[in-house]
Amino acid sequence: MSIDNDHQPGPVDQAVLDGANPYHRRALAFYDLLVFRGSAPLFWRCSPRNFLEMYRTSIGAKHLEIGVGTGYLLQRTRFPVSNPEITLADLNPSTLDFTAERLAHFKTTKVVANALEPLPVPAESHDSAALSFLLHCIPGSLREKGVAIRHAAAAVRPGGTVFGSTILSQGVPVTGAGRWLMNDLNGKGVFHNDQDHLDDLRDQLKQNFDDFDLAVRGCVALWRARKS
């Protein structure tokens, strides 16, 4: 069951829109294969098992997914309850519709939202929030777009969990093939991670949480943080 939220974000920078626009329905049909079976293990050197384990150990009964992709990880995770409530937040209506259809057996709410703005959900209303493979698609350095982490934290209750993953270009090992693909995607405006450094991500987590774990697999950073 899917419920639409009629909120519309304010004016959005064109570069932010350009990072979201490639994910139309035709592209989404191939996304799982290209990302989770292709680029993640082969170019970024991060097995899909890492993402699935993070979801399995972090997700709550009322969950907020920010930047929804295709719902691949949500479909495959194990929720702590049989009837979870899932809020899907994304700038792109195509990804929202695709993911809501995939998760039709769950109660989902679709929200058109810009992660760089305060999210249109009640404060401290969710048990968990995820930003998976989102930050490297948003323009700017992590010192700037790290505000998305703060907005995610604002939506999670005390004791809840904020978790996510992003592809970094600095402070992590990047293979030659990975660097080539990263440069190509940055040139096309699909990625915006040429300034993204592990130290800046760590600083953003420190600013927002007293308790967090940060791990690196290949050039992918994965984190889990507990809200005080």
Automatic annotation (TrEMBL):
SUPFAM superfamilies: S-adenosyl-L-methionine-dependent methyltransferases
Alphabetical keyword list: Methyltransferase, Transferase
Ranges of residues in domain Methyltransferase type: 64-161
Gene Ontology BP terms: methylation
InterPro entries, sorted: Methyltransf_12 (IPR013217), MeTrfase_VrtF (IPR016584), SAM-dependent_MTases_sf (IPR029063)
Top EC class, one word: transferase
E.C. numbers: 2.1.-.-
Name assigned to this protein: Class I SAM-dependent methyltransferase
Pfam families: Methyltransf_12 (PF08242)
Keyword DNA-binding found: no
GO molecular function: methyltransferase activity
Segment forming the signal sequence: none
